[in-house]
Amino acid sequence: MRDPQMYYYKGKWYTSFNAFVFNESCKIACILLFSICGVLFPFYVNGSLQRAAESIGLLFAHASTSAQAPDTTTKAGLIALARADALAAGIPPDLFVKQINQESGFNTNETSPAGAEGIAQFEPGTAAGLGIDPWNPVSALQGAAQLMSRYTRTYGGDYAKALAAYNGGSGTLQYCLTTYGLQWFSCEPAQTQAYIQKIMSS
From start to end of the chain, where are the E strands? Predict the structure, then answer.
């Protein structure tokens, strides 16, 4: 006759129910630990563990943001939204916030003499082509962040060139790159040069 304190589960005997719980808890903890290590180890090897941590944090932040409507009634709320969109798009949040501040000062009703509209100063044709509502800050900020992400990838991670494409047009930038090469910046219009310098300066 077995000890009445013994506990049987999946072909194994345990001295007590507490021992069984402890054993199973250890298994679960090990599985979770190895799973996390399996996800993070490649990033550690590549020297990008910080980016991995930021990405994981972004997932939680994005889920939290999605659960509630963003605050678009205050500048602080719009800045927070811009930062979240920048992180989601994989571009530097600080630079993107400075960019939008330069574009409109986070004024959702901003217009320019050239016809640019809204917080991210999209021209109507550009906004329509991208499926963006320039007067809706949620749509405009997300669209601007995604566009900057695309430009940044196109120009090898060079955010200054991405800014030039956003502000002065990708056609102008391409002409400057083709004609002036490494001196492309001097070819850009003075307004675009000032725009880039203000945003990229510390």
Answer: 7-9, 12-14
